[in-house]
Amino acid sequence: MAILLAPACILILGLLVGPLCLMFRISLNELGPTQLMVEALSADNYVRAATDPYYQQIVLTTLGVALLCTAITLVIAFPAAYWLGRVENRWKSVVLIATLFPLLVGNVVRSAGWMALLDRDGLINWGLARLGLIAHPLQLMYTPKAVVFGIIAVVMPYMIITVSSVIESIPLQLEEAAANLGASPIVVFRRVVLPLALPGVAAGCTLVFVLCMNTYATAVLLGGPRFKMMAPAVYDQFIRSNNWPMGAALAFILLLFTMAFTVLGSLGFARRYGKVSRGPSERLAPA
């Protein structure tokens, strides 16, 4: 059995672990006055990233945007995921295709579409002006709100598909039994649907949070040069500043924060799921 895992393990080690080790080694180097890198074993880049207010603000902005987008995406996507997981008619395949269709378009193209909508001469300002609701164009582009809206539009299909696949596996008889016992729709959702859907919620939130933490094109195109997140900051260090050690250090900090919040969130969901997963079945079981 172990030999069957060997090709995949070798591929992962070669294409993922190897480059990560090389990048970590680069992050310990120093930027020389006349050279791209000076060989060293120094943690100065990590210390600078942890103590410099500029990088601290970038980290906080990235975490705040990722958490906000994940929460909003879950609230918006859950009703659609529930409907998609419960509907049994010809429209289900149409809605499923429509949900997956944005994934066929790159983030740059989708961000360009948002730019056409949010620009000072874009469709939204044009429509509001034609209706007489505004006298001057609104500043919608190059704002944190534009970045949040753009990221949510990108990650929404992932949340819907992930949650709906779990809801589809929940027996509808459980909801019907709870309703027959006098539970209101809100109680049915809170005591039956949500606890059993927590694995999908955890998986969807984890996937969406990782995507939000590592967003690049949406942050650059909709946020502008003044709005800084971790992925654009890493690009700036590598390409614009030619500071490869600092860029590698920022990339590892981004990786560590993403992994830490993902693990902590997964453990929290798992602990909560372990406490409530047996609740509906136990309450509905005959005496």
Write the layout of secondary structure elements.
Blueprint: H1 2-27, H2 44-51, H3 53-86, H4 91-100, H5 107-118, H6 123-130, H7 144-167, H8 172-180, H9 185-213, H10 217-223, H11 230-240, H12 244-276, H13 279-284
Helix pairs in contact: 1-12, 2-3, 3-7, 3-9, 5-10, 7-9, 7-10, 8-9, 9-12, 11-12
Please tag this protein with its features.
287 residues; mainly alpha; MetI-like fold; 13 helices; 76% helix; disordered C terminus
Notes on the structure:
- The protein has a single domain (52-278), classed as MetI-like (MetI-like fold, Orthogonal Bundle).
- 76% of the residues lie in helices and 0% in strands.
- It has 13 helices and no strands.
- It has helices at residues 2-27, 44-51, 53-86, 91-100, 107-118, 123-130, 144-167, 172-180, 185-213, 217-223, 230-240, 244-276, 279-284.
- Helix 1 packs across helix 12 (244-276) and helix 3 (53-86) crosses helix 9.
Summarize the structure.
The protein contains 13 helices and no strands. With 287 residues, the protein is mostly helical. The two termini are 45 Å apart.
